[in-house]
Amino acid sequence: MTKDILGQALLDYQNENYSEDITTYSPTLDEEDVMPLPYLFRDYSQMPQLEKKALRLCKGKVLDIGAGSGSHSLYLQEKKVDVTALDNSSGAIETCRLRGVEKTILQPILEYSGETYDTLLLLMNGIGLAGRAANLNTFLKHLTSLLKPNGQILLDSSDIIYMFEEDEDGGVWVPNTGNYYGEVDFQMTYKEQKGKTFNWLYLDYKSLENAAELAGLSCEMVLEGEHYDYLARLWKDSSK
């Protein structure tokens, strides 16, 4: 059975057993980082502007994909929005329920079908769930199948080109691995337990725009963040 590292950490924090944060290690970038658990339980006032803008743009029936602790769902629920939190982590969904999220689904997004929504919300680099650039078309087409007519997809991501070395002429040295530079592997560690390494995708806006067009979607930049991050809105293009 795969360890639910994120879910266990969220439940510990929710149940007031907080003693440490999640550590993430990327063999791709050879970098270790800390994911502070309190940040995953932030309220609206503590959210970055990209997230606040996305929440304000939500309309109709909303599916919060990769809901985590449910912070975005809770805000929308408080605003009387019909929102459902979806996550493939049982601990995350249990945390959502304990916090008061009324509608939850425990399932990977690519295995979910049946209902359609006015807004699909994918925050905290939600496009990362695609895993690899080669999976984008399948991923976006599946999201499209969950949209009502005139529905929208709201997602944020980051262009991680800034992480690579710049030469004197302003060019960037990106390792020639044959893969898109935003494809990253991660492993989470929590309380001496290591999770399985998983694929994650950071996508520059132009690449998102191209992928959206291939999937029959229109795409617009809604807001640019302070550090290579952005919020985008996608919708079905009736002319395609």
Automatic annotation (TrEMBL):
EC code(s) of this entry: 2.1.1.222, 2.1.1.64
UniProt keyword annotation of DNA repair present: no
SUPFAM superfamilies on file: S-adenosyl-L-methionine-dependent methyltransferases
Keywords for this protein: Methyltransferase, Transferase
Primary enzyme class: transferase
Domain Methyltransferase: 62-151
Record GO terms (molecular function): 2-polyprenyl-6-hydroxyphenol methylase activity; 3-demethylubiquinol 3-O-methyltransferase activity
GO biological process assignments: methylation
Domain of life from the UniProt record: Bacteria
A Pfam family recorded for this sequence: Methyltransf_25
Protein name: Class I SAM-dependent methyltransferase
Species of the source: Euzebyella saccharophila
Phylogenetic classification of the source organism: Bacteria, Pseudomonadati, Bacteroidota, Flavobacteriia, Flavobacteriales
